[in-house]
Each structure stands twice: as C-alpha cells, then as structure tokens.
Design goal:
The chain is mainly α and about 120 residues long. It is built from 2 helices and no strands. The longest helix is centred in the last third of the chain and has 61 residues.
Amino acid sequence: MEPMKPSRRSPNHDLTRNEYALSPASRGVGRMAFVLGAMLVVVLMAVVGLRFFENNLAPTSYLSDVRAENLELRKELAKLRLELEVELATRSELERQVATLNEQLKQVGDELAFLKSAGARKPEK
C-alpha cells in the first residue's frame, strides 16, 4: 500500500475554527444621528441666546436710537421716491413738449421755404 499523504489544508479551514459575531450595522447611523442632534441643539441655543441678549441685555437707549434712525431713513426714502416719481413725470412731459415743438418747427420751416420760393418768382407787370 501506498503511504498516506498528509491532507492539504484548505484556506477556508481556519474559518471554521474561530468564532465570529456580527455587530449591528446601525451603530454608525446612531452616532451620526447623535452628532447631528447635538449640533442642532447647539445652534438652537445660540439663536435663543442671541434673541435673549437683543431683548433683555442690549442697552435700551441703543435700540431706541437705532429704531429712531430707521424711522428717519424710511421717511427720507419715501420722500426721495416721491421726488423720483415727480422727476420722471416731468421728464416725460418735457420730452412730449420737445417732440411737439420740433413738429411745429418743421412746419414753420416748410412754410418759410414756400414763402421764400414764392417771393423769388414775383410776377412781372
């Protein structure tokens, strides 16, 4: 008989000897949700803190001055808008008048040319 050859080990042979455990796949998603939630809480706290500071801790006189200046600027803006509307209406009317005067000037020039040509050909007696 032939001597028995040692059996070759399969590369997958070690896989059967060790114990393996599957970890939950949602572990990374949970961390991501926690980080996003923490960031959201920080942003909300910053907004709330800013509003609290504006309403309670900022100097009242400063806020009153800013509001008064804002009101003055709004009034000035309204005045300037009205002036602009008047300016545009005036310009439009002046352009219309210029067009009318140019037409009249053309008619007068035509009449003058006619009279000059009629005066140059005086009938002889």
